[in-house]
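Figure caption, in words: inputs first, then the predicted bound structure.
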Amino acid sequence: MGSVLDAECTEPGTKVTVIFVLGGPGSGKGTQCANIVRHFGYTHLSAGDLLRAEIKSGSKNGTMIQSIIKEGKIVPSEVTVKLLQHAMQESENDKFLIDGFPRNEENRETFESVTGIAPNFVLFFDCPEDEMEKRLLSRNQGREDDNIETIKKRFKVYLESSLPVIAHYSSKGKLKKIDAAKPVDAVFEDVKAIFNSTSEKVASEEFQHLQDSTSS
Ligand code: ADP
Ligand code: C5P
Ligand code: MG
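Bound structure (adenosine-5'-diphosphate present):
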């Protein structure tokens, strides 16, 4: 079976749907992605999860990735894009939520040039830093980077490197900003409204296209 990322499939017009899910550390990206998967049938690809799996697998890059994560810095895009591309190729699905990526301009440019895919839209979970800090300190998943020292470094990287990417998508009219400080269920109500209105829009565009082609 042809992969969604075969050369011919990355040509414009290919029906691969990609939504980038951005927001600071602890803003609730993973939590909401799980909800979106259940309701809307997307495949969730978390760049952080893929990197952590790479460490666990004992790959040659494992030690390098581990020390970068511990420092709250960003792993070279070549590594992360390869992992994302591989995960997309392995999937039977054609709708992906890419969570925690692109984290900087280099991530964004590398993904675009390697895959030829642009996101349909970008979800941005906007949350105050003190709330994110509280959530990270009580996440309890045994993550080596959920300690106050690394958290402060991650916030700095987020402000310096990730916010410009978010601003980029805003300037392209692709950003859908959500108030992520609300309780989980309330945030998901806002997320649902975005997905429902977007699929309605796609459906109505397709309907319009059908009408146009039958009336000519
Ligand atoms: P991210 O993937 O953006 O780093 P997570 O989804 O892992 O964030 O959430 C970080 C922590 O905060 C988790 O322990 C999660 O259960 C909790 N959490 C997520 N969303 C909310 C919310 N809206 N209100 C309170 N806690 C939340
Ligand atoms: O998104 P998550 O919080 O799981 O990311 C954890 C860490 O993984 C980041 O702080 C960063 O060190 C690394 N990462 C990365 N590049 C990405 C996503 C995550 O280097 N695109
Ligand atoms: Mg996460």
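Confidence is low (pLDDT under 50) at residues 1-13, 203-208.
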